[in-house]
UniProtKB/TrEMBL annotation:
Entry-linked PANTHER family: PHOSPHOESTERASE, TRANSMEMBRANE PROTEIN WITH METALLOPHOSPHOESTERASE DOMAIN-RELATED
Organism: Fusibacter bizertensis
Protein's name in the database: Metallophosphoesterase
SUPFAM superfamilies: Metallo-dependent phosphatases (SSF56300)
Residue ranges constituting the Calcineurin-like phosphoesterase domain according to the UniProt record: 2-195
């Protein structure tokens, strides 16, 4: 029984959005992901997906992408990304797919762990508008709500999940990093960051006692990252 993570699948089976425009390595990237997935994941395993699942703009439009995921082995815990415009209310999404749990102001589980998080947002820095601040504060609150719910349910061990990076480009503390430190969370995964030029500046490893792991699928070379087993 293992726990994996991979972010930013950017699937487009129901729409015309070829990812190879972002580089040859993206050519049929979904086949690379599927091959690795089928070789490693068992039905009893769990996979965290930190956002940007589908390019669809409606829940109905995302059906082909979500069905593709649903048919792969393992339980999937899905968080919203900034490109997941298909995302609707939990009441409309829950129960539609056998192996998928959608997380929004809630939390997922793996063994004794609570899987807690939210989409996140850009963090305060050189370019940060009043609208950014509004969304940022809301997302910080959602992160803490997710953690509090898991703690109240008896999950003292927490794995943190964001879609956006937890800090700005200067790696300065943010509301997100402060929440993770406040609740003594040791492991956080996130995505959103793409391209070799950006990978080197992304937050990775130990930061104020918390281990951060970048999990965008191109950073992982389109292979799932094993968190624990």
């Amino acid at each position: 029984m293992a726990l994996y993570v991979i972010g930013d699948l950017h699937l487009s089976f129901g729409s015309d959005k070829p990812m190879e425009v972002f580089g040859e390595h993206w050519d049929k990237h979904y086949d690379k992901i599927k091959e690795d997935w089928l070789n490693r994941v068992k039905p009893e395993d769990t996979i965290i997906l930190p956002g940007d699942i589908s390019w669809a703009i409606s829940f109905e439009g995302a059906h082909s992408d979500l069905t593709w995921l649903d048919q792969l082995p393992g339980k999937k815990i899905i968080f919203k990304g900034n490109h997941d415009f298909w995302w609707v209310s939990l009441t409309k999404m829950e129960g539609k797919y056998e192996t998928i749990d959608f997380i929004h102001n809630t939390f997922g589980t793996y063994k004794t762990y609570g899987i807690c998080g939210t989409r996140g947002w850009v963090c305060p820095g050189e370019v940060f508008t009043a609208e950014d601040e509004k969304i940022y504060k809301r997302e910080v609150l959602r992160l803490e709500l997710s953690i509090k719910q898991a703690k109240a349910a008896g999950y003292d061990e927490i794995i943190g999940v964001l879609h956006f990076s937890p800090t700005n480009e200067k790696k300065q503390s943010s509301g997100f990093t402060e929440i993770f430190e406040k609740y003594d969370i040791k492991q956080v995964v996130y995505g959103h960051v793409h391209g070799k030029s950006n990978f080197k500046n992304a937050l990775k490893g130990n930061y104020h006692g918390v281990n951060y792991q970048l999990t965008s699928c191109d950073y992982l070379n389109f292979k799932l990252h094993l968190l624990m087993e």
